[in-house]
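Margin note from the TA: students keep mixing up input and output lines. Inputs are the sequences; the output is the structure of the whole complex. Example:
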Amino acid sequence: MSADPFLNRPIGRRSVLRGGLGALAASAFAGPLLTACGGDSSGGGDGKEMSFWNFYGPADDNGPQSKWFVSLAEQWNANNDVKVELRYIPGKEYLGGNVLQTAFQAGQGPDIFLISPGDFLRYYNGGVLQDLSAQLSDQTKADYLPGMLEARSVDGKIYGLPMEIEPLAMYYSEAAFEKAGLSEADLPKTWDQTLAVAQKLTGKNKYGVMFETAPGYYQNFTWYPFLWQGDGAVIKDGKVAFDTPAAVQALKFWQDTIQSKVAPRKALGGGGGDVLANLGAGAAAMQQSGIWAVSDMRAKGQKTKYGIIPHPTPEGGKQATDLGGWAFVANAKGKNPEAAAKFIAWALGSTDAEGVERGRQWNTVVKTNVPPRKSVQQAADSQGAFAEGVLKKFVSEIAPTGQPEPRFPPEVYQPIADAIQACQLNATDPGKAAADAAEKIDTFLKTYQGAPIS
Amino acid sequence: MATTTAPRSKPLVKAGTPGEKQKRSLTRKQREAVAAYAFLAPDVIGLLVFVALPMVLAFAVALFKVDGFGNYQYVGLANYKLMGSDDQLLASLKVTGTYVITYVPIAFVVSLALAMLVRNKFKGIGWVRSAFFLPNVVSLVVVGLLWQFLLVDKRGAISSLLAPFGLEDVSFLGTPSLALGTYVVISVWFIMGYQMLVFLAGLKDVPKELEDAAHIDGAGSWQRFRYVIWPLLRPTSFFVVVNSTIGAVTGLQAFDLVYVLTAGGPARSTSTVVLYIYEQAFTFNNIGYATALTTVVVALLVICTGLMFALTRGGRFDEE
């Protein structure tokens, strides 16, 4: 019996040769074709419609964040000839998928899109980010907190306008502490204390502490504060500076949490940043996450009593957090880059009452962030947004210790990610992992020709 | 079978209008050929457009440095030369190799065992066969999410089952030494129903009288399987091995499943070569290099398949 007649058919040498020659001929034809295709996305047109790809709205759940985006587009469209059309892409696909990259490769990238600092250089070096400077008034530039625009600038030109600041902190479950017979006095201030307290909090169905374990940009983002606490850096003065005691001790701290079995190897729900699915569900007693989790807990985790503390530090270390946050950017090769830049400046940079209120709504009502603009922060303060509780702590105690999220290209980010993963989950010697990563970064930096890495 | 077509000796001639040039109609053989090509056309066109053309274009793209923003720079064979110094590629090939040499035989044995189990009819056989086949009808993304849920550290159903043995702290997807094995088990669970059906089809072609004769001659169950069924199943086995090897290297479970389950972690322990290609294309924007890698993987698969053909004399098992 033959399962497939083709399997019984001998493959002739001539057939193979014919196929090979055909492939070569087609390659010769396709090469110039591909080259030609690549060059026609110069943009700079005067299109009457701009696509805005984002991971907030219009979403099926029609939640407050989705409504904010929809309302933003409607307000703009009511007063402008060049219309904005929103395209919602689910967060997981936007962050981890390939929809944006595929679109840009095909010369069909969106006119406006959201970008994290971790992706800034990839798009800037690709030549697709539009300079927004001309659309921003001096008043707007001065309104942004120090460092916010610099992290999205190259040679003094601004390429992205931040919509939020998202500092990281340690969340803790009051119920878990009470159950373990611990009080606020036991909240850890150092790494050693963290391990000791986590040991007491770890139980049959619960881990004492939790850090992100999934590889990716987010894990790197959450690990940098521990590097900075020991005065470490990845790159200093244009040269690699990763193979240092600061990096080694930070890698070892995360490794220790796993080796001592007080932290999970795999998070629940949406991962390390999902407080609701982990701490909220009682699976972790302490968890590192960002300010965004406050609005998540407000919406769906009201029964969970929790607090936040700054990241514990190594002995003699300094306080540090990572100031993440997304920005609006315009596609320089889009249908109408000028109008896209104008839209961004209006949406996030307007200094009139309506613009400030829009920023306040986004940062303190529909979502919880630290506003990146002084005027928005003042407006939020006047409404008592940061007067008490965890948000007060985020703004007054944690955010001031922060550094903007580094804008590393993938070739720098990946060796760090590999080092974190290897130490945390595969018991690799932190000294060796740091040295290996440093070597790879060094090799890359020797040939790197893009915008300054910071 | 009766036919109404005209005799071959008498060509059909269409009556033309006055002044119109008379046309010779097609012969029966030609008409059959036209019909055959017409039936084949949808498949052939589909294969050409969606398989052959992208493959040819891939060979072309592999000769360029492509930055992901529509810019192409001709680099000749530089992308292929780069592979020689790429440690991560070697590591991912090792992961894929380990996966193939564990998954393919395990899936083979399990599927064949299941096929033998449900070969003979008994009450409720339809339900049993359906149950075994059920995992295969579920999307691999759903399969990944389902197993993630079952394998949650400390709290998952599997951890609860293992708790009496003191193994509740085992993290199947978070421990590098266990993650690949877990991925293999889930892959087998997913594919076993499909391969079971293929084996069942093969078993149906095994003449009952041969087995009966062996039985009368005193052959036991194992001997009947070893000396009667197994040799006659070889073409089916060959198909299953080739099919599952290709599936293990480039199939959906080599990307979709592992992407959802572990995203290549922990510590790259499940970073298959397809996942690595994806990473090169969409994280590093090295689309030219990623494409060159795909051509190499295809070449490796062609070589593997060719070897299998050679070892089995082109799959001609019936000419022994």
